[in-house]
Amino acid sequence: MNKELISTAVARRLNEVRERVNRFDPEDFGDEGFFLTSVKELLLAHPDRISQLTPFSPPAEWIAADTDCLTSLRVLSLHGTRTMPRAPHPSPDDFLNQLKVKSAAREPVFNLLTERYAWPLNFSFAADDEVREYLLMRLMTADRARIESNSAGAVNAEDLLLKLNLISVHASSATDLRFLDALNYYYELLPVNWHPESQHAWLLISWFALYARALNSRV
Amino acid sequence: MRIGILANSLPAALKIYDEASGLPGVEVFVLLAPLDSDGGWSEHVARFVAKSGRRKSLRLIVKRAVVRFRKPLQDPDTISRLQELRLDVGLHKSGSIYSSGTIECFRLGILNAHIGLLPKYRGRSVMEWSLVQGDPTGISVFFVDAGIDTGERMVLSETVDVSHCQTIAEAKQYLFDQDARVYRRAIEKLQQNEKPFQRNDGSGKRYYVMSKLFQDVAQKNLAIGNRQSAI
């Protein structure tokens, strides 16, 4: 693997992500405008702080969540991870089946995913490998095809953004470049001026913050 | 051995036909079936007329080496006609994904020439992914199943150097253009021993279409290989 070429490419993309975040207007994000301001501050105000965006480590044990998935994503975006107690690993098999059934029926998977990944780093837990593969596959096949043959509006924005957030969390700790490149692909695919029709439109911002962190881990 | 080349147009199948029919003890047919999305035979004929190789195509039609189906491959009528042909091996050169019903019409199965080294590289953009990850590029010929490059019976897998190519598109085309040659080699191996299979054990990963960012990395890696091969 030519690490230098990859490093140069992701450094270029990191700058593009920062520029794109800089163009967002806090007013477009309503009550979550402050979150955008904080992310801008993190990515733009102090360039040296980017180097402090340390990659995540995959948890060796399933982690107990002390809050919900969306709050955790905001915290991870801005402040990174912290030490938390372990918890029993819920079997991924039933969950994966539910995910497949809902995906096949084109039903939203947002609640299913937020419930299991209340602590989003659990998405990187080794035993959830099949779930990650399935989500990556859906993102890069069915979702991508629907967006490419129609528009970003053709998929459920909340589902899409949550998947991108979780994939970003994993890409920050994974050596497997497919996850990072799925983010690269979506960065190129989604229109620059896309504003998701969602009550959680701020997930677009947290995605960019987490994507920046994943890119930084490869610079 | 009775071979059927599964194609959507005659010109696409000609090179494979020429290679395969040069083998002793082999009878080759070109099986033309429309895709689901095809505009039907009028479009097909237009494509035939528009493309090169018309004289060769006419020769095959006269030799009755061309079997035309009015309906897509998964259609029961097409499957019934395929069964009557009693073919041993199918060679994939169509835009179709095959149903198990279609695959079972061929005694040994349908071969696919995949432009990646299995089992490591399944799926899309695998040549580019090999370049990005500093691995050799190559081709694998395996019997398809209903999954994406998951067929377990692999007849051959060989590295193919693309470092002389200037662009990713050129390198990819170079690999695609090897299909007739590798199909011929695969048939030869099957003639020698019908079960010479290496196992495509599913240990690799499924790759997906690559971003422009990483395509650029692949292109630069190719250029480095190009310079090194020139020295």
Overall strand count of chain A: 0
Strand % of chain A is under 5%
* Average pLDDT of chain A: 93
Secondary-structure element order of chain B, N to C: EHEHHEHEHEEHEEHHEEH
Categorize the overall geometry of chain B: globular
Number of DSSP helical runs of chain A? 10
> Fraction of residues of chain A in helices?
55-70%
SS strand fraction of chain B = 15-25%
Greatest chain-chain contact: A-B, 23 and 18 residues
Count of strand segments of chain B: 10
Q: Alpha-carbon distance between the termini of chain B?
A: 45 Å
Quote the distance from N terminus to C terminus of chain A. 14 Å
Strand order of the largest sheet of chain B: 3-2-1-4-5-7-8-9
Described by strand count, sense and barrel closure, the largest sheet of chain A is: none
From the helix content, strand content and strand pairing of chain B, which structural class follows?
A: alpha/beta
Which stretches of chain B are low in confidence, meaning pLDDT under 50 for 5 or more residues running?
none
Order of helices and strands of chain A: HHHHHHHHHH
Mean pLDDT of chain B: 88
Task: Explain the overall architecture.
The complex is a heterodimer of chains A (219) and B (231). With 219 residues, chain A is mostly helical. Chain A is built from ten helices and no strands. Chain A starts with a helix and ends with a helix. The model of chain A has no long low-confidence stretch (mean pLDDT 93). Chain B has 231 residues and is α/β, with parallel strands linked by helices. In chain B, strand 1 (2-7), helix 1 and strand 2 (27-32) form a beta-alpha-beta unit. The relative contact order of chain B is 0.15. The A-B interface holds A 1-2, 5-6, 9-10, 12-13, 133, 136-137, 140-141, 144, 176-178, 181-182, 184-185, 187-188 and B 132-134, 205-214, 216-217, 220-221, 224.
Write a concise synopsis of the structure shown:
The complex is a heterodimer of chains A (219) and B (231). With 219 residues, chain A is mainly α. Chain A has helices at 3-23, 33-45, 47-50, 69-79, 92-104, 110-116, 129-149, 157-171, 177-189, 203-216.
